[in-house]
Specification:
Elements (H helix, E strand, L loop, with lengths): L12 H11 L16 H11 L7 E3 L3 H6 L3 H17 L4 E4 L9 H18 L2 E3 L4 H4 L4 H8 L9 H27 L1
Helix pairs in contact: 1-8, 2-4, 4-5
Amino acid sequence: MTQGYGLLQEEGFTAQLQDWLDAAQSDVTLINAGVSGDTTAGGLSRADWTLTPDVDAMIVALGGNDVLRGTAPEIARANLAGILDIAALKNVPVLLIGIDVPENYGTDYKSQFTAIYTDLAAEYDTLLIDSFLRPLTEIGPMSEVLNTYFQGDGIHPNAKGVSIIVQSVGPSVSDLADQVRARSAQ
């Protein structure tokens, strides 16, 4: 979703978030390292070389494709912990963004997978947003939300949906930028 699947580049999450940050005069430049269809394992495999010296902070928004594939929660947790370990080694603050887990694999799977994000955010002292899509899913009846804010696949938000997500995520990204500035001032 961060890569911008199915959207024009200027309609995607990173472009819209960059516009939001520019309007807020945040002096932040985003780099889109999202990969369409990515899993926590893919993110872990790229984390070390993605966090080059010019990267001051990282947003980790992975897990949705793990759930779609039925990945065991403990595997996803280990992959996300590995990403956070690499960020900690490189002294890069993180904003961790969770997902809403459906009950397709049962309530135990849902609760175990959902807990990954709050547990890791506490363990690694990261900023946390509970769910990437929650700003959309809380709008109203899901049938209306799907028709108005999602692409035809019912999974990926359209440009209007991304705009709502950005309005919700933007303040936390500003907080992440403030953490970077505070570290630089020390």
